[in-house]
Amino acid sequence: MRGLEAKTYEERLQELGLASLVKRRTRGDRRAAFQYLREKPGSCPKLPPGTGTICVVKCQNDQRCPGRQKCCTYGCMVVCKDPV
Question: Which parts of the sequence belong to the WAP domain (predicted)?
Answer without folding.
Answer: 37-84
